[in-house]
What we know:
CATH superfamily of the largest domain in chain B: ACT domain
CATH class of the largest domain in chain B: Alpha Beta
Radius of gyration of chain A: 25 Å
Number of strands of chain B: 8
Distance between the termini of chain A: 38 Å
CATH topology of the largest domain in chain A: Rossmann fold
Order of helices and strands of chain B: EHEEHEEHEEHEHH
CATH superfamily of the largest domain in chain A: Thiamin diphosphate (ThDP)-binding fold, Pyr/PP domains
CATH architecture of the largest domain in chain B: 2-Layer Sandwich
CATH topology of the largest domain in chain B: Alpha-Beta Plaits
CATH architecture of the largest domain in chain A: 3-Layer(aba) Sandwich
Number of domains of chain A: 3
Helix content of chain A: 25-40%
Helix content of chain B: 25-40%
Largest sheet of chain B: 4 strands, antiparallel
Distance between the termini of chain B: 31 Å
Mean pLDDT of chain B: 83
Number of domains of chain B: 2
Oligomer: heterodimer
Largest interface: A-B, 18 and 20 residues
Shape of chain B: elongated
Strand order of the largest sheet of chain A: 3-2-4-5-7-6
CATH class of the largest domain in chain A: Alpha Beta
Shape of chain A: globular
Largest sheet of chain A: 6 strands, parallel
Low-confidence stretches of chain A: 1-9, 580-588
Amino acid sequence: MGTNANTQASNAHLTTPTRLTGAEIVWATLVGEGVTDVFGYPGGAILPVYDALRKFPIHHTLVRHEQGASHMADGYSRASGKVGVCIATSGPGATNLVTGIATAMLDSIPIVCITGNVSSKILGTDAFQEVDITGITLPVTKHNFLINRTEDIAPAIRYAFQIAKSARPGPVLVDITKDAQQGTAIFDFAAAKPRPVRPHPMRKIEVSGLDHAAEMIRNSKRPVILAGHGIIESGAMEQVRTLAERAQIPIALTLLGLGAVPASHPLNLGMMGMHGESWVNHAIQEADLLIACGMRFDDRVTGTTATYATKAKKIHIDVDPSEINKNIKVDQPLIGDLREVLEELLPRISGRDGVAWLKTIDTLKGASAVRDIKNLPDLGHLYAAHVIHDIWRITGGNAIVVTDVGQHQMWEAQYYHHEQPRTLITSGGLGTMGFALPAAIGAKFACPDKEVWVIVGDGGFQMTSSELSTIAQEKIKINIAIINNGYLGMVRQWQEFFYERNYESTPLVSPDFVKLADAHGIAGLTVRTRAEVESAVNQARSTPGAFLLNFMVEKEESVYPMIPVGAALHEMIRRPGNDPLLESPDDK
Amino acid sequence: MLHTFVAYVEDLPGVLTRVASLFRRLNININSLTVGRSERAGLSRLTLVCEASAEAGHRIRASLFKLENVVDVDDIAQAPSVTRELALIKVGANRTTRSAIFELVEVFRARIVDLTAESLMIEMTGVESKIEGLIQVLNESESPILEICRSGKMTMRRGHHTSSVLRAMGTGEDDPAGLDNPDGQPLETLDDRVASEPE
């Protein structure tokens, strides 16, 4: 993996202006931007670009569906912090990228998508495999380009990289007509550099705002830091931690914020929101000050906004001015890059006595704070929570875990404790089923030396399971844990709670996943009891190639606690009865 | 409330779609949109009027700025400004009914820019209410309106504000102390007062 026989090509064209074809310019520009891996699928309108690939030191992964390509670029970016790149042809190739582009858009992930289009002479004539992809992706990209002149290719791609990673990151698409790929132009990498980023005029850090925020923190009795994905994108882990430690402020995390603060940190309360721990949501509802760091008060973390944290004043630190007062009205916005804002704010923060408030939260934890799923008597049931807890324990919490969307995603968030940023890769905003397997492939290319686990439901796995072939072809080591409950579990759970157990269209017949893996030359194992989990996980880890574990878990288990849509943050549905799975003490 | 945004955008294909798409996404109807060249090379200036809540103004402006091709945005809100609209109105009128129209045109300070045996064309510039007024009077006259073409509103802040100054003013909030409009009169009235003066 990661090796390419064609790395002997000289990079002289990066320093000396050289006449190249448009196709060569595409690759030369990517090399200049530091790209080593791309994910894509060839086709008529992008063939010139593919024809030129062998001359450049870039590894191309052939996907099985273009949706996989955009998810792989996304997973690559989430794992590494670099810009992910995917390539597709015109028409259906381009439209297949769209779900992955929207996924990246909603989670602010920097990716660059390159698509071929029909020749400029027949653009707009409904030519074979022609589609208006810049029109289609307009609302799900930060920006996009339609390029029909060879000399515009390098500036557009360089500009695309700048847009993708600047300020609030996001996806950018560059659509290049076939004749632009075939033509030639002088390639001058340095001259193709975009103009400096035009700063958003509303993005400025005001001294008065910083002073006011510091005063609010100083005067607060019950503050909570709301830690979001922006911490990771801005690289502000240390600054958030310093703020919390210096002023003794507990931290609640969003789903995409998990890993931004170590799970074991004493001030880390855990995940907030719809499936967050009860004491976390209660702490937010009881707080007199919320310090939102790189999060956007998504409806999944606020519950109904009318009853959200009514006792709290709010400080909102975000890089995107359009997020201020969008969902929740805030008292003190601080608009700017999170790390820069915190570096300005921290000198204004002095020690604060937080003992009383931390003690109150400890009391809120009560009996539900700790649960010992390890010591649950083995009654022959296999719970997803066990499986994920065991994977966490056995991998020492050091793996990159890529999840799909649904119940298993929430169980992962609850039972896999992330100590490091960029170790949980999950589609939070768009909630894209089918994300996990391809995103994990991207993550593995970004971090070839790291252990990568896919945690995926039986439903989501079948949306993109064709990428097993990609894993086999690229010979990469990924461990796949299918949480198989025979249902579209989260939808079934909603049907159980809100639709009178009318399990319409949620029972799911699946193939024998182990045989499916076998058909791809991938080893696998089905696990039915808790006793088998540890040895199965160990076997997966020690097998040199990819490994698939098919965990046949309890069919009608639900994720608790849960805030119903439209309810307040403290109005949670709790696990019925006194089930020891969630309610027993002493989980360490 | 009615929002008026003045924006400088790059003069490139598709830019208008990006601007319009933002309003479509927010399910906000655009009441009026005018675009044309500006004093800055390569940049077009547009005036966009829409109905949205008072709080939405900040977010729309912030979102407009996020568009790569948008260079400057000013939310005029209630700030002192001049707003004008151009209307071309074709009226069916013959030799006998024509003179009544001429009188109206005189009163409204409009102009006749085309005249044929069966019709004439009126050109009029002014605030919206003035144009509406002429249309209403024409509707009540014997001469039928055959066609109306209206430019939509164009707005410029009063005073010595170059576009870069507008940008520096930044927030586009209401004139805080009412310094430029001490009487607190509605702007339409101010506009009318100026408009009724000889030009």
